Amino acid sequence: MDNIIVLATNNKNKLKEIKELLNDSPVTVKSLDDFGPMPEAIEDGATFDDNAYKKALHYAKILGVPCLADDSGLVVDALDGRPGVYSARYAGPQANDWDNCEKLLGEMAGKSNRAAHFVCVLSLATPAGPALTWEGRCDGEIAAERRGQSGFGYDPVFFFPEFGKTFAEVSMDKKSQVSHRGRALAEFVAEFPKAQVWLRQRLAENKPPKPDHSQFEHNDWSKERMC
User: Fold this and answer.
1) CB 175 within 8 A of CB 155
2) What distances in angstroms separate CA 178 from CA 34, 119, 136, 181, one per listed residue?
């Protein structure tokens, strides 16, 4: 069980990216879709760490197996850290990627400081509560307009100076080498052997006790009883 990891996300784009990044790792990867419908986690934490843990623990408790969740977002210096933990719903609860990018570009109009960074926090939680955390960060700038057709989220407006392009102008593989999520997952994979040992210990500690059969001593199941 300690090599089975359920990716606790309903975001199809994130799921695809994470599965590709973990493709060569010693992990059996499953998604929430493998288990059928279940109530969604409430992401009302004040930090990326809070939300990642909330999601991981929520689904770990429901499924009874370790779950890996991420919470990630864009932090813009000129906007006092916004959109931050509200990145996915920055333009409103029903907003899509296009809406969020449009709002961001509107708020950045005329701003000389374009510095921004992506943050990704991964939380691997056990059903009983204990969790491990990894974090990745990628620094860049907010472009003046959307560029590129690849990626998702804020990729079309996140300019990465090292590439001289936005994340939406490069392949998923190239992006993953430097992205916040790629870096966090690289640390997770590198430390997974240690994480497995930790998981075994935590799962063993919280294993249900063996049933007490003393209450059945008066029953002799080896003999046939007559009614």
Assistant:
1) yes
2) 30, 12, 9, 8
Q: Contact 218/154 with Cβ under 8 angstroms?
A: no
Of 71, 77, 173, 220, which one is the catalytic site residue?
71
CA 57 to CA 55: how far, in whole Å?
6
Residue written as token pair 């109009």: 109
pTM of the model: 0.82
**Structure tokens belonging to residue 91:** 């333009």
Burial classification of residue 126, based on how many CB atoms lie within 10 Å of its CB (0-12 exposed, 13-18 middle, 19 or more buried): buried
User: Which CATH number covers residue 150?
Assistant: 3.90.950.10
Does the residue 224 lie in any domain?
A: no
Structural domain for 153, as ranges: 4-206
Query: 182, 145, 150, 153: which is closest to 169 by C-alpha?
Result: 150
Q: At 213, is the secondary structure helix, strand, or coil?
A: helix
Measured in whole angstroms, the distance separating CA 121 from the mean position of its chain's CA atoms is: 7
Q: Are 194 and 27 in contact (CB under 8 A)?
A: no
DSSP bridge pairs for 4: 28
Q: Among 14-28, 35-49, 146-160, name the most confident range.
A: 146-160
Per-residue pLDDT, averaged over 12-39, amounts to 79
- How much is the pLDDT for 1? 53
Residue-wise pLDDT for 127-143, tens only, equals: 999 999 999 999 999 99
Give domain status of residue 155, yes or no: yes
Per the annotation, the verdict on 33 as an active-site residue is: no
Mean pLDDT of 70-77: 96
